[in-house]
Amino acid sequence: MAFQFNFSIEEDLENKLTSLDDGSCVLESQKGKQDNRQSTEHPGLPRDHSWKRSSLGNAASSENTGSPPPIADRSDDPEACKHQPSWKPAKEHAMPKDVKEVLENTVLEMLPGTQHANTAVVKTVSLKEKFPGENIVSKSFSSHSDLIPGVYEGGLKIWECTFDLLTYFTKAKVKFAGQKVLDLGCGSGLLGITASKGGAREVHFQDYNGLVIDEVTLPNVVANIPLQDDGNGINEPDGKRQRKSEVGQEICKCRLFSGEWAEFCKLVLREKLFVKYDLILTSETIYNPDYYSTLHETFLRLLSRSGRVLLASKAHYFGVGGGVHLFQKFVEEKGVFETRTLEVIDDGLKRFLMEMTFKHPS
Ligand SMILES: C[S@@+](CC[C@H](N)C(=O)[O-])C[C@H]1O[C@@H](n2cnc3c(N)ncnc32)[C@H](O)[C@@H]1O
């Protein structure tokens, strides 16, 4: 399978991650910053936002499942509210009428098989001027950061574990046909794009940063997926792109969202016809323990009872402190999901593929 990308991969910019002997890695930019990470200011936004105040909780779950959530409401739990991610409102990014426009100023490159590529960095100097409100590219470059918690969560580059999951899809012959899929923390959106190409009925893409959705995810989706409601063929620039899906395959419906996870949940659960996801795909999203609560809550609210999460992660992220074992421990303590290790990739930088399913599917 080949993907088309709207950016180029620069080997020399690649990988600000330093490998350590035990297979874990450290984000260079995060060294020594651990204690400062809560200090990110968001002018004009409430600083004490928490899941409790998001009012997602019981109303959403009873509306959409007809049953109460299988864990106690944690809104009175000070631990649960102490370290919440910064508040970033969620919004849906409409699929433009003229999808050709999306690709107008983009450089498309082919990435042959997924297993050969490594971490990529988006080359988007021009973006600095384009998005003064969310100037994450220059912030990221100037602070030499792969991510800035609460500001930029890393979606502009493709992280290694995405490729691990893609390889696993092929190896394990993961079935997407007819499924409703969420690519959570999508960045480039390769996982969702693959699901779509595999026949998923509907794929939703979510990223923290709107700029990532507009400038990376959306062009990649447009470049790779035959989209619904664009029957005029404009989604086929230069005749290079295969416009049609395989014969007989349904055209997948794609929707894109930005915003923090609790806010994203609120947004999608508000939709009366919302049907939960059969499959949630997520790569390199458990690096920050401060986000575990909302991430777990997101799985709980949005995954169908018989669905599963396929999660890929490095063993440990030193700078921010998260990692597989910490997350697994967190999940175990919650008692809602079962986790199963699908694969350990140990080529110097230990990485894990995990499956999460409800302990009590019905
Ligand atoms: C390290 S990047 C990984 C991107 C992509 N999945 C990959 O593997 O290349 C982490 C992603 O998770 C998302 N993310 C992290 N924390 C988040 C939060 N609290 N709320 C919403 N999205 C978050 C960001 O949007 C970001 O794209």
UniProtKB/TrEMBL annotation:
Pfam families in UniProt: PrmA (PF06325)
Principal localisation: cytoplasm
Enzyme class: transferase
Residue span of region Disordered: 27-96
Signal peptide segment: none
Entry's localization field: Cytoplasm, Cytosol; Nucleus, Nucleolus
Superkingdom of this protein's organism: Eukaryota
Composition-biased stretches (Basic and acidic residues): 30-51, 73-82
GO molecular function: heat shock protein binding; protein-L-histidine N-tele-methyltransferase activity
Keyword vocabulary terms for this entry: Cytoplasm, Methylation, Methyltransferase, Nucleus, Phosphoprotein, S-adenosyl-L-methionine, Transferase
Catalysis performed (reactions): L-histidyl-[protein] + S-adenosyl-L-methionine = N(tele)-methyl-L-histidyl-[protein] + S-adenosyl-L-homocysteine + H(+)
Biased composition (Polar residues): 53-66
GO cellular component, one term: protein-containing complex
Record GO biological process: methylation; regulation of ribosome biogenesis; regulation of rRNA processing; regulation of translational elongation
Enzyme Commission identifier(s): 2.1.1.85
PANTHER family named in the record: HEPATOCELLULAR CARCINOMA-ASSOCIATED ANTIGEN, HISTIDINE PROTEIN METHYLTRANSFERASE 1 HOMOLOG
Subunit-structure text: Interacts with GRWD1 and members of the heat shock protein 90 and 70 families; these proteins may possibly be methylation substrates for the enzyme.
Similarity-based family: Belongs to the methyltransferase superfamily. METTL18 family.
Protein's job: Protein-L-histidine N-tele-methyltransferase that specifically monomethylates RPL3, thereby regulating translation elongation. Histidine methylation of RPL3 regulates translation elongation by slowing ribosome traversal on tyrosine codons: slower elongation provides enough time for proper folding of synthesized proteins and prevents cellular aggregation of tyrosine-rich proteins.
Name of the protein in question: Histidine protein methyltransferase 1 homolog
Organism: Mus caroli (Ryukyu mouse)
